[in-house]
Write a structure and sequence with these properties.
alpha/beta, 8 helices, Arc Repressor Mutant, subunit A
Length: 244
């Protein structure tokens, strides 16, 4: 069955380029030219991938990303013509998985999409689904992987995380980073090795690791001087702090 992609882009030339690149990767592509239409398409189609222009008319790309995150775990690539690093960081904090700068390189887009889809995807339930019961701890088995570290619990198969009994909402990339750290709790993970493990690539900017790791630590409640879960090993990378 073909994968589905939604392109949310107001520039016709860029939209056509994205449609061509993703179609050649085997996606069925739908195009929205503004934010409202994009939210509606994502809600209706439940795509596997969304490319999202930051500078949309009306509802901008950052707000679109916030609105679609509760209804989809699709990979989201923000597309921006702005060189300001702050815009990119804000885009990633809304739940985006990556960003591309205009003018778009088709080769780079394909490489990043392929890297993302080498990681398993997990779907959210629809908004009208029946409420889920409170989480019950299950023993880890060959069929059901559960990771524990202090009062942090990760149900890998359900793609859910709890801290001190309260559920923590993570993006797919943040979840993959946390699960990687928790599977080897005493290991120090260099940024380049995390790129290979989580992104499936040994090339690229380790800046991506730093951005997503910063978002993960914030959601887990880690603060400067009050690190409980993920600590930085200066000049090397990251590791889990010993459970107290």
């Amino acid at each position: 069955m073909p994968r589905c992609a939604v392109v949310i882009e107001d520039d016709a030339d860029t939209a056509s380029l994205l449609e061509f690149a993703l179609s050649s990767q085997g996606f069925d592509v739908a195009i929205a030219h503004d934010g409202q239409e994009g939210v509606a398409l994502v809600t209706a189609l439940r795509p596997d991938l969304v490319t999202l222009d930051v500078g949309l008319p009306g509802i901008d790309g950052l707000e679109v990303c916030r609105r679609i995150r509760p209804v989809t775990d699709a990979y989201v690539i923000m597309v921006t013509s702005q060189a300001d690093e702050i815009d990119r960081l804000i885009g990633l904090e809304t739940g985006a998985d990556d960003y591309l700068a205009k003018p778009i390189s088709v080769r780079e887009l394909k490489a990043r999409v392929n890297a993302m889809f080498r990681r398993p995807r997990h779907f959210v339930e629809s908004a009208d689904a029946a409420p889920e019961p409170a989480y019950v701890e299950l023993p880890a088995t060959d069929e059901h992987e559960v990771l524990r570290h202090g009062d942090l619990l990760v149900d890998v198969d359900a793609h859910r995380v709890w801290r001190a009994g309260e559920e923590v909402e993570l993006t797919p990339t943040e979840f993959d980073l946390l699960a990687t750290l928790m599977r080897s709790p005493t290991r120090v993970w260099p940024r380049a090795l995390l790129m290979q493990e989580v992104w499936g690539q040994s090339w690229g900017e380790t800046h991506h690791v730093e951005v997503h790791m910063g978002n993960l630590r914030r959601k887990l409640g880690d603060r400067r001087g009050q690190v409980r879960f993920v600590e930085t090993v200066r000049g090397v990378g990251y590791r889990l702090r010993a459970a107290s």
